[in-house]
Write a structure and sequence with these properties.
Elements: E1 2-5, H1 7-14, H2 21-33, E2 37-40, H3 42-53, H4 65-78, E3 80-81, H5 88-99, H6 105-117, E4 122-124, E5 138-140
Parallel strand pairs: 1-2, 1-4, 2-3, 4-5
């Protein structure tokens, strides 16, 4: 099976004091042990960067530029990075029209567009409800992987 990691998985992996850290870590370890394919796309890294470098007082990780850069490199060693391609935008546009996506949900639609373009079936996320509308993919909560 193929999986795209939602950005919340990347954040939980790096936030060792977060209640969902162990769930994210165990899930990734289990899937890697099964030789499942785990992917990220540039959008994941951009979203991670935004939160990682935002101050803690405004719900960020408060990492320095150097720390965030190291974390990004570490993430790219854990997950395979699929690059953006010209096919993603038309796929995104098709999805927002089909599902009448508006506002912040447009970011999720872009992840789904990348998944479809790269033939990734499942998205690992703690926010499965955000992806249930998309019949093209399967949202998987990491807490269900054993």
């Amino acid at each position: 099976m193929t999986y795209l990691a939602d950005t919340n998985i990347l954040l939980r992996l790096k936030q060792t004091s977060h209640p969902l850290h162990l769930s994210a870590l165990q899930c990734v370890k289990t899937l890697k042990k099964r030789s499942e394919k785990l992917y990220i796309v540039p959008q994941n890294l951009i979203e991670f960067w935004v939160v990682a470098t935002r101050p803690v007082k405004v719900n960020g990780l408060g990492l320095s530029f150097e720390q965030a850069t190291l974390e990004i490199e570490d993430i790219k060693h854990i997950f395979s990075l699929y690059q953006d391609t010209p096919a993603i935008y038309p796929q995104w546009e098709r999805l927002i029209r089909k599902y009448q996506v508006m506002g912040k949900k447009s970011h999720d639609a872009r992840l789904v567009a990348a998944m479809i373009t790269h033939n990734i079936d499942n998205i690992l996320t703690f926010n499965t409800d955000d992806f249930l509308r998309y019949s093209e993919i399967i949202p998987v909560d990491p807490r269900t992987i054993h």
